[in-house]
Design goal:
By secondary structure, the chain is mostly helical. It is 47% helix and 4% strand. A two-stranded antiparallel ribbon has the order 1-2. A two-stranded antiparallel sheet has the order 3-4. Strands 5-6 form a two-stranded antiparallel sheet. Helix 1 packs across helix 4, helix 5 packs antiparallel against helix 6 and helix 6 runs antiparallel to helix 9. The longest helix has 24 residues. It is globular. The structure holds FE2/S2 (inorganic) cluster.
Length: 274
């Protein structure tokens, strides 16, 4: 049975708050969400690390995996961006370095510094705090103003780099309106998969808090900036669902990669509607 001493009975104590003898008085399953987050994040990290090092099965004309786009090395299959052909390859101990290791820096940096993900993994991994009204094990809080968490402030820069990546992945989705021989005017399940992935990534990026600030931040009079006000209004509506877009797009990007991999290995056929 928890012992609670009311503020009234603790008068005279420098700590005027109720002193609770247990970690929390919550009786619901408050630990469930942090646990689910741990499972989702560890699964995604394991899958993306495996795929980044696999360095194969990421291209099946006309589909390219989002983990390997744009093409950065001349050994890349497909993914040549706007006619630009990459030059050279980087190797380590005679082995080709996977381009995904460089490409993934942007989306992972963007997600790692995202305000929604911060909340999720601070709760899930650092228990800081694990849930509302549940005490955290840490004795002091130093915030995000010092090393290493001060790097979370890089989020706005990852946001702009992420927009660039969204443009590239949208371009990849447009290229998927071709058939395996390169003829335009076709649509396959892969086309829909790449389109859905690009759409989810745009929704995730445009609902970002940094995007909202870029649209309407630092303004004194909305009435003098009608276009920014309108943009801010739209982004604010998206922002309400930012957490949902964050999680759905995470699954979206992994499943898109998995689909392209399965087609590339020959495990499944990319069915064409026309
Ligand atoms: S706050 Fe989540 S992506 Fe910017």
């Amino acid at each position: 049975m928890a012992t609670v001493t009311s503020p009234a009975s603790s008068q005279g104590s420098p700590d005027r708050r109720a002193q609770i003898g247990v970690r929390t008085l919550r009786t619901d399953k408050w630990w469930l969400m942090p646990l689910v987050m741990v499972i989702i994040f560890l699964s995604f990290i394991a899958y993306s690390t495996w795929r980044a090092f696999e360095n194969a099965y990421y291209f099946a004309e006309p589909l390219i995996s989002p983990f390997y786009s744009p093409c950065l090395m001349s050994t890349c299959e497909g993914g040549v961006l706007f006619g630009w052909t990459p030059i050279g390859n980087w190797t380590l101990f005679g082995m080709a370095i996977s381009p995904a290791l460089f490409i993934l820096i942007v989306p992972l940096g963007f997600r790692f510094t995202c305000y929604y993900y911060r909340k999720a993994y601070y709760r899930a991994f650092w228990q800081s705090p694990p849930a509302c009204a549940v005490a955290e094990p840490h004795k002091k809080y130093t915030g995000e103003t010092r090393f290493p968490l001060i790097f979370q402030n890089a989020h706005r820069y990852f946001f702009y780099l992420g927009l660039l990546l969204n443009v590239i992945l949208t371009y990849d989705a447009v290229l998927a309106f071709r058939n395996a021989e390169g003829a335009w005017g076709h649509m396959s399940i892969g086309t829909l998969v790449l389109l859905a992935n690009a759409t989810l990534l745009w929704l995730y990026s445009l609902s970002c808090h940094s995007c909202r600030h870029a649209m309407g931040g630092r303004l004194k009079h909305f009435s003098k900036h009608p276009v920014r006000y309108k943009s801010w209004t739209i982004v604010s509506k998206l922002n309400v669902n930012h957490g949902k877009f964050a999680m759905i797009s995470l699954f979206g990007v992994a499943l898109t990669d998995l689909y392209v991999r399965q087609v590339a290995t020959g495990a499944i056929t990319n069915f064409y509607f026309f």
